[in-house]
Amino acid sequence: MVLTGATLSAPITLPYLSNYNNNGQLVADYYDGTLSGLTYQAGQTYALTSYTYAGTASATVVGPGNITLSAGATLVTWTAEGNNDAVYVSGPVNTSLYPNQNSPVTLLLGTVYPSSGTYQVSVITDNQAATVNGAASPSVFGVSDELIQNVTK
User: Is the CB of residue 31 less than 8 Å from the CB of residue 19?
Assistant: First the structure.
């Protein structure tokens, strides 16, 4: 998998991470959070290209994200929307899931943080290309940004 974009000094080959099953669909995951030459910018268009024995598949995707969590951990915002953004809060009492969200997302103290303790706030902004040229449907190429932060209440 090769990634190109305006802020990249040169195309970057994303290493293969693993396969996983997502609702009956086999997914090949390519990722490296420490790529040299990559300055991720939410709102920038990225081109993803896969070269395999079966041929070449490609798509362009706008990078979502630039995620922030307010000082009191009650407001999550991001500047570039994806098409599959979610907020998860897990803690000592419960887990709250907010799928398919748009920024901003308010985290209510009595609901999300019902008691004192340590909670983990995970925000994933994900943008998936509607069309992947050269690939069979339902192929998907996507770009994600993620924030994981522990919060003590």
Answer: no
